[in-house]
Design goal:
293 residues, Metallo-beta-lactamase, Chain A, Metallo-B-lactamas, MBL fold metallo-hydrolase, WH-like_DNA-bd_sf, Sec-metab_biosynth-thioest
Length: 293
Protein backbone atom coordinates (compact mmCIF):
# COMPACT_ATOMS: atom_id res chain seq x y z
CA UNK A 1 0.00 0.00 0.00
CA UNK A 2 1.32 3.41 -0.98
CA UNK A 3 1.03 5.95 1.78
CA UNK A 4 -0.69 8.91 0.15
CA UNK A 5 -1.51 12.18 1.84
CA UNK A 6 -5.07 13.39 1.54
CA UNK A 7 -6.25 16.91 0.81
CA UNK A 8 -9.27 18.30 2.62
CA UNK A 9 -11.78 20.12 0.44
CA UNK A 10 -15.05 21.84 1.08
CA UNK A 11 -18.30 21.04 -0.71
CA UNK A 12 -18.44 23.88 -3.19
CA UNK A 13 -21.42 25.25 -5.04
CA UNK A 14 -24.70 26.71 -3.83
CA UNK A 15 -27.01 24.73 -6.10
CA UNK A 16 -29.30 22.32 -4.31
CA UNK A 17 -28.93 18.65 -5.27
CA UNK A 18 -32.61 17.74 -5.09
CA UNK A 19 -33.65 18.72 -8.59
CA UNK A 20 -31.92 20.92 -11.11
CA UNK A 21 -30.37 21.00 -14.52
CA UNK A 22 -26.82 21.85 -13.53
CA UNK A 23 -27.90 25.06 -11.89
CA UNK A 24 -30.96 26.68 -10.31
CA UNK A 25 -34.05 24.77 -9.31
CA UNK A 26 -36.11 23.42 -12.18
CA UNK A 27 -39.70 22.31 -11.78
CA UNK A 28 -41.18 19.88 -9.29
CA UNK A 29 -38.56 19.10 -6.69
CA UNK A 30 -37.58 15.48 -6.36
CA UNK A 31 -36.16 15.15 -2.88
CA UNK A 32 -32.99 13.28 -2.10
CA UNK A 33 -29.25 13.62 -2.35
CA UNK A 34 -27.01 12.25 -5.06
CA UNK A 35 -24.48 11.08 -2.49
CA UNK A 36 -22.28 12.39 0.28
CA UNK A 37 -19.67 14.92 -0.85
CA UNK A 38 -16.10 13.65 -0.71
CA UNK A 39 -14.41 15.53 2.13
CA UNK A 40 -10.84 14.47 1.38
CA UNK A 41 -9.42 14.26 -2.10
CA UNK A 42 -6.67 11.68 -2.55
CA UNK A 43 -3.28 13.34 -2.24
CA UNK A 44 -2.53 12.64 -5.90
CA UNK A 45 -5.61 14.57 -7.09
CA UNK A 46 -5.86 18.35 -7.48
CA UNK A 47 -8.80 20.44 -8.64
CA UNK A 48 -8.30 23.48 -10.88
CA UNK A 49 -11.70 25.12 -11.24
CA UNK A 50 -12.17 27.26 -14.35
CA UNK A 51 -13.52 30.80 -13.87
CA UNK A 52 -16.73 30.15 -15.82
CA UNK A 53 -19.53 29.85 -13.25
CA UNK A 54 -23.10 29.92 -14.53
CA UNK A 55 -26.48 28.19 -14.55
CA UNK A 56 -25.15 25.35 -16.71
CA UNK A 57 -21.68 25.09 -15.15
CA UNK A 58 -22.43 25.50 -11.43
CA UNK A 59 -19.29 26.99 -9.85
CA UNK A 60 -17.29 26.45 -13.05
CA UNK A 61 -15.77 23.61 -15.04
CA UNK A 62 -13.62 21.24 -13.00
CA UNK A 63 -10.22 20.56 -14.55
CA UNK A 64 -8.55 17.71 -12.69
CA UNK A 65 -4.81 17.15 -12.32
CA UNK A 66 -3.76 13.61 -11.38
CA UNK A 67 -0.14 13.06 -10.34
CA UNK A 68 1.25 9.82 -8.92
CA UNK A 69 3.69 10.24 -6.02
CA UNK A 70 7.26 10.70 -7.18
CA UNK A 71 6.32 11.63 -10.76
CA UNK A 72 7.12 14.96 -12.40
CA UNK A 73 4.45 14.59 -15.07
CA UNK A 74 0.70 14.25 -14.66
CA UNK A 75 -2.64 13.58 -16.31
CA UNK A 76 -5.09 16.44 -16.93
CA UNK A 77 -8.81 15.83 -17.36
CA UNK A 78 -10.78 18.49 -19.29
CA UNK A 79 -8.69 21.65 -19.80
CA UNK A 80 -11.90 23.67 -19.92
CA UNK A 81 -12.67 27.07 -21.45
CA UNK A 82 -10.27 29.36 -23.29
CA UNK A 83 -9.09 31.20 -20.20
CA UNK A 84 -5.38 31.93 -20.51
CA UNK A 85 -4.55 31.96 -16.81
CA UNK A 86 -6.44 28.72 -16.20
CA UNK A 87 -4.78 26.96 -19.13
CA UNK A 88 -1.33 28.24 -18.16
CA UNK A 89 -1.77 26.93 -14.62
CA UNK A 90 -2.67 23.49 -15.98
CA UNK A 91 0.21 23.51 -18.45
CA UNK A 92 2.65 24.31 -15.64
CA UNK A 93 1.77 20.92 -14.12
CA UNK A 94 3.60 19.22 -17.04
CA UNK A 95 0.80 17.00 -18.36
CA UNK A 96 1.84 13.86 -20.19
CA UNK A 97 -1.74 12.89 -21.07
CA UNK A 98 -4.92 14.96 -21.40
CA UNK A 99 -8.28 13.20 -21.18
CA UNK A 100 -11.49 14.71 -22.56
CA UNK A 101 -14.84 13.60 -21.12
CA UNK A 102 -16.91 15.07 -23.97
CA UNK A 103 -16.71 17.82 -26.55
CA UNK A 104 -18.82 20.59 -25.03
CA UNK A 105 -17.11 24.01 -25.13
CA UNK A 106 -16.93 24.43 -21.36
CA UNK A 107 -14.70 21.34 -21.31
CA UNK A 108 -12.67 21.69 -24.52
CA UNK A 109 -12.86 25.26 -25.79
CA UNK A 110 -9.31 25.85 -24.55
CA UNK A 111 -7.86 22.60 -25.89
CA UNK A 112 -6.05 24.02 -28.92
CA UNK A 113 -4.39 26.72 -26.83
CA UNK A 114 -3.60 24.16 -24.14
CA UNK A 115 -1.77 22.04 -26.71
CA UNK A 116 0.36 25.07 -27.54
CA UNK A 117 1.16 25.68 -23.88
CA UNK A 118 1.82 21.98 -23.18
CA UNK A 119 3.14 20.55 -26.47
CA UNK A 120 4.34 17.33 -24.84
CA UNK A 121 0.87 16.24 -23.81
CA UNK A 122 -0.95 13.47 -25.61
CA UNK A 123 -4.72 13.98 -25.94
CA UNK A 124 -7.41 11.32 -25.71
CA UNK A 125 -10.59 12.73 -27.22
CA UNK A 126 -13.51 10.26 -27.30
CA UNK A 127 -15.19 11.89 -30.30
CA UNK A 128 -12.13 10.88 -32.32
CA UNK A 129 -12.17 7.18 -31.61
CA UNK A 130 -12.85 6.13 -28.03
CA UNK A 131 -12.13 2.50 -27.27
CA UNK A 132 -14.32 1.31 -24.42
CA UNK A 133 -12.30 -0.76 -21.99
CA UNK A 134 -8.96 0.40 -23.36
CA UNK A 135 -6.32 0.83 -20.67
CA UNK A 136 -3.77 3.64 -20.75
CA UNK A 137 -0.69 3.64 -18.52
CA UNK A 138 1.20 6.88 -18.06
CA UNK A 139 2.82 9.03 -15.38
CA UNK A 140 2.49 6.25 -12.80
CA UNK A 141 -1.28 5.99 -13.31
CA UNK A 142 -3.54 3.41 -14.92
CA UNK A 143 -6.54 4.78 -16.81
CA UNK A 144 -9.45 2.67 -18.06
CA UNK A 145 -11.81 4.19 -20.63
CA UNK A 146 -15.49 3.73 -19.75
CA UNK A 147 -17.88 4.74 -22.53
CA UNK A 148 -20.98 6.35 -20.99
CA UNK A 149 -23.13 7.87 -23.76
CA UNK A 150 -26.35 9.63 -22.88
CA UNK A 151 -25.62 13.21 -21.85
CA UNK A 152 -23.93 13.33 -25.25
CA UNK A 153 -23.05 10.60 -27.72
CA UNK A 154 -19.34 10.90 -26.91
CA UNK A 155 -19.60 11.15 -23.11
CA UNK A 156 -16.83 9.14 -21.50
CA UNK A 157 -15.76 8.40 -17.94
CA UNK A 158 -12.29 7.41 -16.81
CA UNK A 159 -11.41 4.96 -14.05
CA UNK A 160 -8.00 5.94 -12.71
CA UNK A 161 -5.86 3.82 -10.40
CA UNK A 162 -2.93 5.12 -8.39
CA UNK A 163 -1.45 2.38 -6.26
CA UNK A 164 -4.40 0.83 -4.44
CA UNK A 165 -6.59 3.94 -4.74
CA UNK A 166 -9.16 4.41 -7.48
CA UNK A 167 -11.36 7.30 -8.62
CA UNK A 168 -13.73 7.84 -11.53
CA UNK A 169 -13.85 11.01 -13.62
CA UNK A 170 -17.44 11.46 -14.85
CA UNK A 171 -17.55 14.73 -16.79
CA UNK A 172 -21.21 15.71 -17.08
CA UNK A 173 -22.56 12.16 -16.84
CA UNK A 174 -22.70 12.56 -13.06
CA UNK A 175 -22.43 16.05 -11.54
CA UNK A 176 -21.40 17.00 -8.04
CA UNK A 177 -24.78 18.67 -7.45
CA UNK A 178 -28.16 18.25 -9.08
CA UNK A 179 -28.82 16.28 -12.24
CA UNK A 180 -27.56 16.65 -15.78
CA UNK A 181 -29.32 17.46 -19.03
CA UNK A 182 -29.78 14.87 -21.78
CA UNK A 183 -28.71 16.89 -24.82
CA UNK A 184 -31.25 15.56 -27.34
CA UNK A 185 -30.86 14.68 -30.19
CA UNK A 186 -27.13 14.10 -29.62
CA UNK A 187 -27.93 12.82 -26.15
CA UNK A 188 -30.17 9.79 -25.70
CA UNK A 189 -32.11 8.86 -22.57
CA UNK A 190 -32.02 5.12 -23.17
CA UNK A 191 -28.25 5.23 -23.54
CA UNK A 192 -28.01 7.44 -20.48
CA UNK A 193 -29.99 5.02 -18.30
CA UNK A 194 -27.76 2.17 -19.48
CA UNK A 195 -24.67 4.24 -18.64
CA UNK A 196 -26.01 4.94 -15.16
CA UNK A 197 -26.64 1.22 -14.69
CA UNK A 198 -23.04 0.61 -15.62
CA UNK A 199 -21.72 3.22 -13.20
CA UNK A 200 -23.89 1.86 -10.39
CA UNK A 201 -22.45 -1.60 -10.96
CA UNK A 202 -18.89 -0.37 -10.44
CA UNK A 203 -19.51 -0.74 -6.72
CA UNK A 204 -19.76 1.35 -3.60
CA UNK A 205 -17.20 3.75 -2.15
CA UNK A 206 -15.75 4.71 -5.52
CA UNK A 207 -15.03 8.47 -5.37
CA UNK A 208 -16.48 10.59 -8.18
CA UNK A 209 -14.58 13.53 -9.67
CA UNK A 210 -17.29 15.27 -11.73
CA UNK A 211 -17.13 17.90 -14.43
CA UNK A 212 -18.95 20.43 -12.24
CA UNK A 213 -19.61 20.71 -8.53
CA UNK A 214 -17.98 18.98 -5.57
CA UNK A 215 -16.40 15.55 -5.61
CA UNK A 216 -18.68 12.77 -4.40
CA UNK A 217 -17.94 9.84 -2.12
CA UNK A 218 -19.86 7.01 -3.81
CA UNK A 219 -20.34 6.45 -7.54
CA UNK A 220 -22.92 3.68 -7.04
CA UNK A 221 -25.07 5.85 -4.77
CA UNK A 222 -24.89 8.78 -7.17
CA UNK A 223 -25.84 6.61 -10.15
CA UNK A 224 -28.75 5.08 -8.23
CA UNK A 225 -30.01 8.55 -7.30
CA UNK A 226 -29.81 9.63 -10.95
CA UNK A 227 -31.67 6.50 -12.07
CA UNK A 228 -34.45 7.13 -9.57
CA UNK A 229 -34.65 10.76 -10.66
CA UNK A 230 -34.93 9.84 -14.34
CA UNK A 231 -37.60 7.21 -13.67
CA UNK A 232 -39.61 9.72 -11.64
CA UNK A 233 -39.34 12.26 -14.45
CA UNK A 234 -40.55 9.69 -16.97
CA UNK A 235 -43.56 9.02 -14.75
CA UNK A 236 -44.28 12.76 -14.71
CA UNK A 237 -44.11 12.87 -18.51
CA UNK A 238 -46.42 9.85 -18.77
CA UNK A 239 -48.89 11.60 -16.47
CA UNK A 240 -48.74 14.78 -18.55
CA UNK A 241 -49.49 12.78 -21.69
CA UNK A 242 -52.33 10.90 -20.02
CA UNK A 243 -53.78 14.24 -18.92
CA UNK A 244 -53.93 15.40 -22.53
CA UNK A 245 -50.63 17.14 -23.27
CA UNK A 246 -50.20 17.20 -27.04
CA UNK A 247 -46.99 19.14 -27.58
CA UNK A 248 -43.53 19.59 -26.11
CA UNK A 249 -44.31 23.00 -24.63
CA UNK A 250 -47.24 21.65 -22.62
CA UNK A 251 -45.24 18.71 -21.29
CA UNK A 252 -42.43 21.09 -20.34
CA UNK A 253 -44.83 23.37 -18.48
CA UNK A 254 -46.32 20.48 -16.52
CA UNK A 255 -43.10 18.67 -15.68
CA UNK A 256 -40.98 21.79 -15.04
CA UNK A 257 -43.59 24.41 -14.03
CA UNK A 258 -41.18 26.81 -12.35
CA UNK A 259 -38.21 26.46 -14.67
CA UNK A 260 -35.82 29.40 -14.63
CA UNK A 261 -35.48 31.11 -18.04
CA UNK A 262 -31.72 30.57 -18.21
CA UNK A 263 -32.07 26.78 -18.01
CA UNK A 264 -35.33 26.42 -19.94
CA UNK A 265 -33.57 25.39 -23.20
CA UNK A 266 -31.79 22.60 -21.33
CA UNK A 267 -35.04 21.44 -19.74
CA UNK A 268 -36.69 21.38 -23.17
CA UNK A 269 -33.92 19.19 -24.57
CA UNK A 270 -34.39 16.76 -21.70
CA UNK A 271 -38.17 16.70 -22.27
CA UNK A 272 -37.60 15.91 -25.93
CA UNK A 273 -35.24 13.11 -24.90
CA UNK A 274 -37.90 11.76 -22.54
CA UNK A 275 -40.58 11.89 -25.24
CA UNK A 276 -38.28 10.17 -27.73
CA UNK A 277 -37.61 7.44 -25.16
CA UNK A 278 -41.34 6.87 -24.56
CA UNK A 279 -42.12 7.02 -28.28
CA UNK A 280 -39.51 4.38 -29.11
CA UNK A 281 -40.31 2.03 -26.23
CA UNK A 282 -44.00 2.59 -25.52
CA UNK A 283 -45.26 4.12 -28.81
CA UNK A 284 -46.11 7.19 -26.78
CA UNK A 285 -46.64 10.06 -27.58
CA UNK A 286 -48.61 9.82 -30.83
CA UNK A 287 -48.26 13.51 -31.64
CA UNK A 288 -45.93 16.05 -33.23
CA UNK A 289 -42.47 15.41 -34.59
CA UNK A 290 -39.95 16.07 -31.83
CA UNK A 291 -38.02 18.59 -33.92
CA UNK A 292 -40.89 21.05 -33.60
CA UNK A 293 -42.16 22.94 -30.56
Amino acid sequence: MIGLARRTISAVGSAEPEDQLAGPRAGVRLTGSATTPLVDLPGWVRLFRAPNPGPMTLTGTNSWVLRAPGHDTCVVVDPGPADEAHLAALAAERPQLTLITHDHPDHVEGLDRFRELAPATRVHQPSRGAADGEVLRTAGLTVEIVSTPGHTTDSTCYLVDCGDERVILTGDTVLGAGTTVVMWPDGDLGAYLASLDRLRDLGADLPVLPGHGPALADCAAAAEFYLAHRRARLDQVRTALADGATDVATVLARVYPDIAPDVRPAAELTVRAQLAYLRDREHNPPFEPLDRT
